Fold Heterokaryon incompatibility protein-domain-containing protein.
Amino acid sequence: MHPAQHQDEQLRCSCLLFDIDSAPPFEALSYAWGPPEPAVELQCNGLTFTVRPELANALIRMRLQTTTRIIWADAICINQNDIEERNHQVSLMGSIFTSAKRVIVWLGIADPISDHIQETFEVIELISTTCQQSLDDQGNEPQDRWESVQIAASVFTPSLRRGLSKLFKRSWFSRIWCLQEIRLAVDALFLCGKHEIHWHDLGTAASWFFDQDFSHGDDPVNKWLYSIDTYPVERMYDHLSVGFLETLQNSRMFESTDPKDKVYAVLNLVAPRSELDGFEVNYDKSVGEVFAKTAVFIINKTRRLDCLAHVSHPPDYDGNVDHRSWAPRWDHDKRIAAIGGWADCPWRVCAGMSILGTRGYDLNAEELVLQGIYYGKVVTTEALDLNTTNVESAQDKNMENNEGSVQARIRLLARTVVAGQLGCDFIADLGESSQEKFYLSFRHLLQRLSCPDQVGTDFQHPLSADTKILEEDIYTMRGKRRVFWTSNGSLGLGPQCMRADDIVVVLYGGNTPYVLRPRGDKYLFLGEAYVDDIMHGELMQALSEGKVHEQTFHLI
């Protein structure tokens, strides 16, 4: 970037080619592209070149008065209209941002009156300094991190609260390419108008906000602070590297202009790198093809079906010609709490058998051909909500369809509505006293729901801490799910799009049962399910006894 004495001078730059290993010290620019208009003209290698206004604003802010500044900026250094070049450059993005001496983050122009950026940055630095002092006093980061670090409420003036709210809503914090760029940075400086702040201070303050519990009490300041969403910033500041599938899932909240970038923009965050051996970037493929090939790649690498736990369809889903039913839609932020989406979960419906141990399986971007066992047909389904009608209706149907004592049937319903999980624990792994406490909390919840006029009061059935946790778990697990009953009398929890005549199966390589919808001799994949009767390998035992048989399922 060539220098300029005056801010209103036209931008001039020279685009130079270097091998990444022998490039001179340079800074990499990270910014949200923003709208294309009004386009700004600059001179690049003596030729007129147009860029988006946000890039022009960033370059004007970074331009020096007397010396050149070496910058890498994607819209200038990559030919965005050349698919082959984009494919190649995406694979280099990790090297570019880790090689940069510093990443400059452009948050945008700041309104000196309404944005309160100076005051906001000063308080962010105060929070960071206070956290660092706490860390120095304790010698290492405490288990609760910054939860016990207190900042005086008087600091959060009305103008500061407005400034914080506007800051964390800036589009840079929502973009998926920005996630990768900041995570790879050796050092980073944030610019907002004429103001600047170091990433360490901003990230630490965002972590402090994330750790605080502002949800209790009637204090208006706490209520307002509770409304600030710093979780995306927390994800950006967290340098923990995980595998391909978990990286894709953790980044679903971030946005991209091209849906394919929901996969390609996070590749350099995956660890170990061997998980990506053989994976190819190809912008020529459609979005549906990219998502399907990604799912097949992960399944082939792991020989497991954990990827299927992240499939979520809308309530009226009945197939989509542009997307395979079994490929997670990484471009959709609306995630679903997985029932068995990780290798070490306790559910073993197929007794740990991987797809590698089966015959006749075939994985390609058009369909998955998998082996498994048919369990039963869905007879009826019902929405599950925390109101008297739905929960009591589910309880009534459960009493009709299942044998055993009243206590056993209530306990079955309790395990089902939370998919066998209580917080981060699995009910089957809890000690006897903890399990009894869980079942007592569920009965307490049923009692509260039997008195709808008193729910939310302390009149007859006060909300205990255990019942509150249970209620939150039901809310978490019921999202995008329905309870259902099968033709053989089993109660289950399945995807919101399921309906009567769908089928429940166990597929080798999966942790949980799955719900499928027949389509001729093939099937739509609807999602994972919890069926209490078969979560611990009961169908595999029945197979060994000759009571059921294997089948081949073609998923489209």
In short: The first strand starts at residue 12 and ends at 13. The CA atoms of residues 312 and 476 lie 14 Å apart. The radius of gyration is 27 Å.
